[in-house]
Amino acid sequence: MAAPSLFDTPMLHQLRNCERVMVVGAGGGCDFLSGLPIAFALHEQGKTVFLANLTFTAVARTTARPLAPGVFEARADSTGPRAYFPEKHLSQWLQQHGYPDDRVFLIQKGGTRQVKAAYAWLAAELNIDGLVLIDGGTDLLMTGDEAGLGTPVEDITSLLAARALDVPVKLAACVGFGVDTTHGVCHAHFLENVAALARTGDYHGVSALIPGIAAVDSWLDAVAWVQQHTPARESVVCASITDAARGEFGNHHSLERTRDTGAELFINPLMSMLWGFNLDAVADRVLYRNHIEQAVTPFEVAAAIEAFRDHNPLRPRRSIPA
Asked: Is 270's pLDDT higher than 70?
């Protein structure tokens, strides 16, 4: 009996004819780590996989190699701030585990125009025929009129940058249902948005990240390594998702930084579900996209989103009747 593979899912089946795929973190921080199960599953299939991230790392304080405006390359031997350089730590893990390419590309934070240019350079330079934009959390699907948007600036900037690419297959993916509650996301609205994408054939289903699947086991190990080397700045989102995948439940704290706040967590199996969508369809549903297409800085993006919400009706917050 063949070992289970994450590739045997409707979402990754969309990439079956692709050979060179970039998996990129949408919202900065450690979103790129949430894309590792996808990257490892593609690698198992013999695909060439590239990893990238819209980074929160202070790139100017690192030796990451500049490649193009707003694009840098981190390797296992890159140096930088001891407290926070997750891309370098993942590169170390990849090298130690024999992956042929230990590069992680860093996309510097900027406005929509700069991030689009960085995406365009990477797509051309790497000659990709597939792209997966991954969000740790679910606020990537917020269109703008929901009761709460979470942290949309980086996510939607990345989404529009990917939308502008002429690449045969582009997917948007989310993992971490419920982790955005502290950022005000109404998850009933997330589910409503998924339903709207299902009606147009742009929802590619949901998959469980279950230990025992090789790509999932590698992801759990890689995240643990990066978290260990990011003391006091570990990703709460990654911790919640991996804890859920391991079967933890309820007010479980694997990080001192959440335990010390006294906040109550609700770790549960829904957090380790991977949702997949047609990227262009997700981007086309962003109601304020035309307002930020030419934004030069993240501050302009944030101001435009705030102005849109000030002048348009919002969906009332609702609970999930379950």
From this structure: yes
